[in-house]
Recover the amino acids of this structure.
C-alpha cells in the first residue's frame, strides 16, 4: 500500500540529490555547507539516557543529578561539533580504477587528503550513509586511500555512483556525512559468455588487409622457460630483472592468426555477441594465440600479450558508445 | 562450548574494559546491597570475562532469563518492593550484570555504558556530598573513554589516548553544562509520588518511641547549619523546635493531624528578635526546624500549624535555605479556651497505675500547677535517675511505670514522655516536643548535628500558656549547657564529633571542621540551587521571567556553539609547510583562485592555469620565473635572500587586478 508513496518519495529525494549534488570533475573539498549531520540511533539512546537522568534529578531535586544530566547533554553538543570537524576540510579525489567485467565488483580508488593539523579518525565511505557496517574505514593524518566497492551491471564506460564519506567519531552519537559525486571513467568489459563454443579458426581478414607481414616473425610475448627451448630465444634481460628464465614467444602469423569479427559472431543481439567475443579474447589470450579484432569500423590488428588483450577488451566495452 | 563468531569482535580486552568500568561504578552500590547479591553480580561479571577469554559461546537465552528472574525475585523478597532507592539501585546493578552476560554487539556495549551513567546517577541520588562530585566527574570521563574505545571498529585503541580524548571532551563540555545548570528553568519537584517519605535519610522521625532519639543521637551527621545575623544566643536557649507529639497510645507518640481545624494560637514575644538562616539538610519529611519560637515573616511555601511547628508544604527532598526570625522569650496560647486543649490531656486508660497514683499524691501536696511541675522536676533531680544512651529496654503495657520505678535510666525522650504523662494524669495539658538542642560554632556559622537531637516537654498553665519544661535539664544540666558529650563523657556510643566541643581541639577534629566549612559552602551554593535560589540569583542579572531565562539559555548555547566552531577552525589550521617554496606556490595558487591536482602543480601547469584564468601578464611571468629559478636551483635550502624577495613579489602581486574581460565587453 505504501509502495507508490515510497517510490514517489524516493523520486523526490533523487531529484533533490541531483540538483544539490551534481557530479563534479575536480577534487571535492568538504566545506561546512557540504556536511550533513544527524543524531545516530546510538545518539537518540544517549539522549534518552540524559533525559532519564534529568527527570530523576527533577523528581528528587538533586543538584548533582542535574549536573550529570546537563553534563551529558553538553558532552553530546560538543561531540556533535567534533564529529562535524572530523570531516571538515577533507579533500576527496578519485584515482583511475582498474577495468572490470560487467557484474564484477569494481574498486574505485578514493584518495583523501587532509592538509590541516587536525588528524582525522575512523572515516567511512559507503554508498548508503546509514550503512552500519563500514564499507571502508580509515584514519587520515595527511593522506588516506580507500576503495569504493560497487558493481556495474552492464558493459560500457560508467561513472562510480554517488557515495557518502561519513564519520561518527568520537562518540558515535552523531553521524556526519558528505555526498561525494565525482566524475571518473570506469571501463566495464562485457561479461564473458558462459558458453558458446571455441573461437573460430578463421585467418581470414574481413577487410582483406593484412595485419602482419608474411614471413616476418613477430615477438609476441614471453613465457616461462621450459627445458628444450631454443637458447637463442631466451630473454636474458628478464633473467637479470626477475632472476628467472623466460623464453621469447614468437607468433607465427602465417599459420595461427585468428580474426575475431563482430559481424561473423553468432548471437541474438549485440550484447550477447560482445560477450561471446569477450570470452574468445580471453581464451585466445590464454592460449597465446595471436588474434585481431574487427568491430565494424574499428579494427585492431592481430597481436598478442596483455596490452593487446586490454586494448581489445576496452574496444568491446566502448563499442557503440560514441 | 563452541566458539562464537559474534563474540569475536568483542575480544577479551574490549569487554574487559567495559566490565572493569561497570564494576567500578557499581562498587558503591554493591557495598549497600545484601552480600549475596553483590557476590552474584561479581560472579556474573567474572563469568562474562571468562567467556570472552576463552572465546566461548554466551549462555543460552533460557538460562539467562531464569537467572535474571531468580535475581530479581530474590531482590524483591529482600527489599519487599522495588520502590525505594536502594532496592531500585540493587535491581539496576543486577540487571546491568545480566545485560553484560548477553552482550555481543557494539550496540549492547553502548547500552552497558549508558547503564553506567545511570549507576552514577544512583550514587548521587544517595549522597550529594562533595567527594561524590569528584566520583561523578571521574565516572563520566571513564564512561566516555570506553565509549570512544567502541568507536574505532578496527583497532583496540590505547586506553591512555581514550582517556585523554574523553577528558578533553568532558572539559570542553563543562562551560555549557554550567550554563544549563544556572539557566535551565527548575521546576519544584517531585514530578511523581515519592513512595517512601524519608527513606534512607537520617533525621527526626514524625513519631517517637523510646529509643528513637537515642539512636539518632549516635550519628554525628549534620542535621542543619545556622547562620545568625547578630550574636548567637547562649547554648541553653537554642531549642530547635521540630515535630510536636501529642497523641499517646501507651508506647508511641504521634503528632496531631494538621487538618484538625484548630486555629494557630496567639504568640506574644518580648526581648530581642533573632534573625538567622537555616541551611537544612534533606530529611524527606515535611516538618522544618526553627528556633523556639518562630515569628513572621515565614519563608515561602511554609506555614505554622496549631502546635506552632514550622512545616513545609512539600517534603524536604533537597538541601534548603530558610531565612527565619525568632524570639526566645515568648508566651504561647495564654488565652486558649479549655476546649482547644482536650487533645493534650487525653491518655489511654488503664495503664501506668503507679504513675497515676504518684501524680495524684503530688497533686494533693502542691498548691498550684507550677508547684506540681516543680515537684516532678525535683523528683527527677533528687532520685537516682541516670542519663544514658543505652537504657534497659522497656517492655509490657506499663512502660512509664517501669521507667519511673524500676529502670530509672533513660535518654531525653524517656524523661520527656514520663513528664508529659505525669502532667496529663492530673489534667494539665502537656505535650512532647522533639527537635534539636544546642549547636557547635564553626567559623561564621553553627553546626547542629543529629547527635544534638533532643526531646523536651511543654505544659499549659492557666494564665501563662504553654511553657517549656526540659526534664533532661533536671537530670543532666551539662547536656543543655554544653551538649551531649559533656553529659555522657566519652561514651563509646557517642560519635566522634559529638564528644565535648571544648575537649577535642586536636588536629583531626579541626580538619573535620574545616571540611565542614567547605561542605557548608557547597551546600549553600550548589546543592541548594533549586527553583527559589535560581530565581534570586538570576534576578541579580535582570533575568526575571521564564521567557528571559529561555532567551538567555538559547543565547548562551549559541555562544558556546560559536566558541566551539572557532576552536575547530583553530584546530584545523593548515599544517606548516616544511618546504618554504611549496608554501609560496600554494599561496600563489590560492590567491589566483586556481585549483590544481597535487601532482600537476609544476611551473608549466601553473602557467597554463594562469593563462586560462586570464591572469597571465608581465608580473605573473616574472613571479613564476622567479619561483621556477629557485625551485630548480639545486640548492638546499634555498637562498634566504632570494626567498624573501619572492615572498615580497608575491605580496605585491595583484592576482585579481584584471578579471578576465569578455572580448568587446
Amino acid at each position: 500500500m505504501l509502495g507508490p508513496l515510497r517510490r514517489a518519495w524516493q523520486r523526490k529525494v533523487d531529484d533533490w540529490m541531483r540538483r544539490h549534488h551534481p557530479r563534479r570533475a575536480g577534487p571535492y573539498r568538504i566545506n561546512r555547507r557540504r556536511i550533513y549531520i544527524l543524531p545516530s540511533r546510538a545518539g537518540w539512546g544517549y539522549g534518552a539516557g540524559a533525559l532519564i537522568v534529568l527527570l530523576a534529578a527533577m523528581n528528587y531535586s538533586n543538584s548533582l543529578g542535574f549536573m550529570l544530566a546537563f553534563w551529558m547533554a553538553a558532552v553530546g553538543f560538543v561531540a556533535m561539533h567534533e564529529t562535524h570537524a572530523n570531516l571538515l576540510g577533507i579533500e576527496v579525489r578519485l584515482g583511475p580504477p582498474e577495468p572490470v567485467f560487467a557484474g564484477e565488483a569494481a574498486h574505485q580508488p578514493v584518495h583523501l587528503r587532509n592538509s590541516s593539523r587536525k588528524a582525522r579518525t575512523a572515516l567511512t565511505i559507503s554508498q548508503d550513509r546509514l550503512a552500519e557496517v563500514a564499507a571502508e574505514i580509515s584514519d587520515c593524518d595527511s593522506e588516506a586511500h580507500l576503495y569504493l566497492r560497487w558493481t556495474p551491471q552492464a558493459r560500457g564506460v560508467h561513472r562510480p555512483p554517488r557515495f557518502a564519506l561519513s564519520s561518527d567519531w568520537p562518540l558515535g552519537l552523531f553521524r556526519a556525512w558528505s555526498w561525494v559525486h565525482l566524475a571518473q571513467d570506469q571501463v566495464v568489459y562485457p561479461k564473458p559468455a558462459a558458453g558458446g563454443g571455441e573461437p573460430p579458426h578463421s585467418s581470414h581478414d574481413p577487410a582483406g588487409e593484412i595485419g602482419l607481414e608474411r614471413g616476418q616473425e613477430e615477438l609476441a610475448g614471453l613465457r616461462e622457460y621450459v627445458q628444450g627451448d631454443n637458447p637463442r630465444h631466451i630473454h636474458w634481460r628478464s633473467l637479470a630483472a626477475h632472476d628467472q628464465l623466460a623464453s621469447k614467444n614468437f607468433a607465427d602469423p602465417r599459420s595461427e592468426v585468428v580474426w575475431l569479427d563482430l559481424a561473423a559472431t553468432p548471437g541474438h543481439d549485440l550484447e550477447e555477441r560482445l560477450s561471446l567475443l569477450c570470452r574468445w579474447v580471453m581464451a585466445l589470450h590464454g592460449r597465446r594465440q595471436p588474434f585481431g579484432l574487427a568491430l565494424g569500423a574499428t579494427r585492431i590488428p592481430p597481436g598478442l600479450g596483455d596490452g593487446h588483450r586490454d586494448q581489445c577488451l576496452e574496444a568491446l566495452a566502448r563499442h557503440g558508445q560514441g | 562450548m563452541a566458539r562464537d563468531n559474534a563474540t569475536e569482535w568483542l575480544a577479551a580486552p574490549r569487554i574487559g574494559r567495559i566490565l572493569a568500568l561497570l564494576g567500578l561504578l557499581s562498587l558503591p552500590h554493591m557495598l549497600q546491597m545484601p552480600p549475596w547479591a553483590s557476590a552474584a553480580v561479581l560472579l556474573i561479571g567474572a563469568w562474562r570475562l571468562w567467556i570472552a577469554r576463552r572465546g566461548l559461546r554466551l549462555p543460552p537465552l533460557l538460562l539467562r532469563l531464569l537467572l535474571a528472574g531468580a535475581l530479581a525475585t530474590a531482590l524483591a523478597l529482600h527489599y519487599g518492593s522495588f520502590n525505594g532507592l536502594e532496592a531500585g539501585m540493587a535491581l539496576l546493578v543486577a540487571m546491568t550484570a545480566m545485560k553484560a552476560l548477553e552482550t555481543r554487539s557494539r550496540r549492547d556495549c553502548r547500552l552497558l555504558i549508558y547503564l553506567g551513567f545511570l549507576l552514577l546517577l544512583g550514587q548521587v541520588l544517595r549522597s550529594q556530598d562533595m567527594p561524590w562530585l569528584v566520583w561523578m566527574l571521574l565516572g563520566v570521563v571513564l564512561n566516555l573513554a570506553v565509549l570512544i574505545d567502541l568507536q574505532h571498529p578496527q583497532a583496540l585503541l590505547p586506553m591512555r589516548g581514550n582517556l585523554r580524548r574523553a577528558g578533553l571532551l568532558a572539559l570542553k563540555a563543562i562551560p555549557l553544562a554550567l550554563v544549563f545548570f544556572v539557566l535551565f528553568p527548575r521546576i519544584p519537584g517531585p514530578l511523581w509520588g515519592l513512595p517512601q517519605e524519608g527513606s534512607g535519610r537520617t533525621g527526626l522521625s514524625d513519631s517517637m518511641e523510646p529509643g528513637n532519639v537515642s539512636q539518632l543521637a549516635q550519628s554525628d551527621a549534620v542535621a542543619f547549619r545556622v547562620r545568625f545575623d547578630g550574636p548567637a544566643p547562649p547554648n541553653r536557649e537554642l531549642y530547635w523546635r521540630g515535630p510536636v507529639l501529642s497523641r499517646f497510645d501507651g508506647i508511641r507518640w504521634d503528632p496531631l493531624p494538621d487538618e484538625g481545624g484548630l486555629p494557630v494560637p496567639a504568640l506574644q514575644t518580648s526581648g530581642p528578635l533573632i534573625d538567622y538562616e537555616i541551611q537544612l539538610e534533606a530529611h524527606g519529611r515535611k516538618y522544618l526546624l526553627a528556633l523556639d519560637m518562630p515569628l513572621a515573616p515565614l519563608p515561602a511555601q511554609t506555614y505554622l500549624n496549631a502546635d506552632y511547628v514550622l512545616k513545609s508544604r512539600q517534603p524536604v527532598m533537597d538541601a534548603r535555605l530558610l531565612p527565619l526570625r525568632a524570639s526566645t522569650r515568648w508566651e504561647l496560647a495564654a488565652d486558649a479556651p479549655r476546649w482547644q486543649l482536650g487533645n493534650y490531656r487525653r491518655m489511654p486508660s488503664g495503664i501506668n497505675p503507679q504513675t497515676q497514683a504518684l501524680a495524684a499524691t503530688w497533686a494533693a501536696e502542691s498548691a498550684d500547677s507550677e508547684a506540681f511541675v516543680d515537684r516532678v522536676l525535683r523528683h527527677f533531680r533528687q532520685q537516682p535517675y541516670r542519663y544514658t544512651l543505652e537504657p534497659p529496654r522497656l517492655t509490657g503495657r506499663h512502660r512509664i511505670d517501669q521507667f519511673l520505678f524500676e529502670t530509672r535510666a533513660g535518654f531525653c525522650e524517656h524523661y520527656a514522655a514520663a513528664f508529659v504523662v505525669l502532667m496529663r494524669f492530673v489534667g494539665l495539658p502537656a505535650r512532647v516536643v522533639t527537635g534539636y538542642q544546642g549547636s557547635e560554632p564553626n567559623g561564621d556559622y553553627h553546626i547542629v548535628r543529629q547527635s544534638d537531637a533532643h526531646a523536651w516537654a511543654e505544659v499549659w498553665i492557666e494564665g501563662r500558656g504553654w511553657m517549656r519544661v526540659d526534664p533532661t535539664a533536671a537530670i543532666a544540666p551539662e547536656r543543655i549547657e554544653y551538649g551531649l558529650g559533656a553529659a555522657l563523657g566519652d561514651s563509646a556510643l557517642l560519635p566522634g564529633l559529638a564528644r565535648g566541643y571544648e575537649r577535642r581541639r586536636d588536629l583531626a577534629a579541626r580538619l573535620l571542621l574545616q571540611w565542614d566549612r567547605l561542605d557548608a559552602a557547597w551546600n549553600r551554593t550548589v546543592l541548594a540551587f533549586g527553583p527559589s535560589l535560581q530565581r534570586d540569583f538570576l534576578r541579580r542579572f535582570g533575568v526575571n521571567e521564564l521567557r528571559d531565562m529561555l532567551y538567555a539559555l538559547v543565547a548562551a548555547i549559541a555562544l558556546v556553539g560559536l566558541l566551539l566552531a572557532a576552536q575547530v577552525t583553530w584546530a584545523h589550521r593548515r599544517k606548516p609547510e616544511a618546504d618554504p617554496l611549496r608554501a609560496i606556490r600554494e599561496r600563489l595558487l590560492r590567491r589566483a583562485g586556481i585549483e590544481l591536482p597535487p601532482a600537476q602543480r609544476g611551473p608549466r601547469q601553473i602557467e597554463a592555469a594562469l593563462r586560462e584564468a586570464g591572469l597571465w601578464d608581465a608580473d605573473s611571468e616574472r613571479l613564476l620565473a622567479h619561483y621556477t629559478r629557485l625551485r630548480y636551483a639545486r640548492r638546499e635550502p634555498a637562498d634566504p635572500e632570494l626567498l624573501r624577495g619572492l615572498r615580497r613579489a608575491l605580496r605585491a602581486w595583484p592576482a585579481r587586478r584584471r578579471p578576465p574581460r569578455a572580448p568587446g565587453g
User: Anything to note?
Assistant: DSSP finds 22 helices and 19 strands in chain B. The first strand of chain B starts at residue 222 and ends at 228.
